[in-house]
Amino acid sequence: MAKTSGEVPPHILVFVPGYMGSKLRDRNTKEVVWIDFSGVPLLPWKWGPWLERLFEMMAYPNEDLEPAGVMDQVIFVPPWAKQEHYNRLYEALRGMGYKLDERQFFGGDGDPGGADESKLNCYAFPYDWRQDNRESARRLARAVERWRSYHPGAEVWIIAHSNGGLVARWYTEKEGGKEFVTRLFLMGSPWDGTPKAMHLAFGGFDTLFRRSFNLFGIAERTRRLVRTFPSIYQLIPFQNPFLVNLDNERVDPFGHGTWLDDEGQRGYLEEGRRFNEELGSSLTPHTVCFFGRRQMTPTSGRVRLAANNAWEHIEWTDSEEGDGTIPARSADNPEAEERIPYPVNHGNIYVDEDVLEKLKFELIDRHRRGAGEVRAVAVSQNLTVVFEPDRDTYSPGESVGMWATLHTNDSPPQPVTNASITVQPAWYEPLPGSSSGRPAADPAGARLKAVAGEAGRYEGDFTAPDAEGYYHLRATVRVKGKLPVRLEELIAIEPPVDITPPAGDGVTTPGA
User: How far is it, in rounded angstroms, from Cα 347 to Cα 141?
Assistant: First the structure.
């Protein structure tokens, strides 16, 4: 199809999800293992066997698992991320006019196939995010080759979130994709890893889906689990010296691997170093880089070493220069043609209204309005805003504390003392293993007030509702003469539970 003035160039759009963002299922039974919350038992004393099987099935390698669509449920796994499902991106792309097959996006055995020249065509590439990203990239190459056969002559454009950007970039730079891929949209994707990968590999998860699961030794069991994943080592920063010891001397995580358990893991670590060294920040396609700022993000750590050089503990230091998971210095790829910061976190960058508006302009409007048109992007409003709840999980009736800091982007930054900040909590989804549905009404909103003696800091709280579930905290920041800034956080409301089985139930509660 020849391109004419005012037309979108013939292309196929490919979406590559991020870490933990693809479902994995048993290829024999077709049961979704990662992750189908409908399978979580409603009786708390039966959670132990369910978790035991999850860890057993998820340990890598397990050839019985295969990709089965992109995630359509919340992934609540601090400290890594509190991640929105991808349905909202799916709906946004469909609203732009793309043809998407829901089975292929969110699970099923069909590939949409065929060519529909009357529509824009979009494909999803779910993959086994545990495996070496090079293997995922090779499988992406085979998938794109198949999709291109349905649309002869079409360009390939890729949207990639988080670790999906590493897969997409290895494909374009190392597996021949640069011959076909002309545009790449990176969303919160690191080119030099993230200290949070080290955080997970060293200490495991703080929470896996819900706080009550911590009664089953989640931190230690997830630490052992993620160390079996080749990909986690490819997310550890290579260029950035982010670790020091108590004497402020650099500690190299890729050194002798004394913090790991065995030679197999040390082999994965060395492959992670090679992967990052070979890929670097290279970009061949025209790339637009979306990344988050103003979220407290671990950016450095201090390692306490034992006498035998074993790692005892890492004390992490946070900075607002990131999206809560990926530091801005790593997500802001220096090779990209356009690099745009947004006040978003890692788990919702792909559903943010401003990000989607800019994406629509790049995908559709730029071509239909004329290639020479430039769209102004309202990003920072000359403000740096940080918004955080004081915890991730609360019990009903507890005080949910929140804080925000506001400063100008001047040099030096100046505190903003005349802001109005409102927060509206809204129920979002049930917790895994919960029979509770949406409550009749959302909790009352709260207003953050300026803190005396701390210019630019605002605090407030509201009482956690009785209804358990995941809740959005939607903050709106208004400063006279500026456009409103909107930020969003995710928390869990969860009552204490008793995992002790009743007498005669026959269920044994496992220890940690």
Answer: 26
Secondary structure class of 326 (helix, strand, coil): coil
What is the Cα–Cα distance from 251 to 247, expressed in whole angstroms?
10
Sign of CA dihedral 438, 439, 442, 443: negative
* DSSP output for 472-485: EEEEEEE-TTS--E
- One digit per residue, the tens of pLDDT, for the chain of length 512 reads 334 447 899 999 999 999 999 999 999 999 999 999 999 999 999 999 999 999 999 999 999 999 999 999 999 999 899 998 999 899 999 999 999 877 777 775 555 555 555 579 999 999 999 999 999 999 999 999 999 999 999 999 999 999 999 999 999 999 999 999 999 999 999 999 999 999 999 999 999 999 999 999 999 999 999 999 999 999 999 999 999 999 999 999 998 888 999 999 999 999 999 999 999 999 999 999 999 987 889 999 999 988 777 899 999 999 988 999 999 999 999 999 999 998 889 999 999 988 999 999 999 998 876 544 444 443 445 777 888 899 999 999 999 999 999 998 888 889 999 999 999 999 999 999 998 889 999 999 999 999 999 999 999 999 999 999 999 999 999 999 888 888 889 999 999 998 888 876 655 555 44
Supply 67's token pair.
């990709």
CA dist., res. 422 & res. 309, Å (int):
49
Q: Which helix (H) or strand (E) holds 433?
A: none
Q: Are 403 and 458 in contact (CB under 8 A)?
A: yes
User: In the block, which residue shows the tokens 């953050």?
Assistant: 448
CA distance 206 to 350: 24
Q: Using CA atoms, how far apart are residues 99 and 122, in angstroms rounded to an integer?
A: 6
**Token pair recorded at residue 28:** 């024999």
In the chain, helix, strand, coil percent, each to 5? 25, 30, 45
At 98, the amino acid letter reads Y
Neighbours of 406 (CB within 10 A): 26
The secondary structure of 171-220 as a DSSP string is HHHHSSGGGTEEEEEEES--SS--HHHHHHHHH--S-BSBGGGGGG-HHH
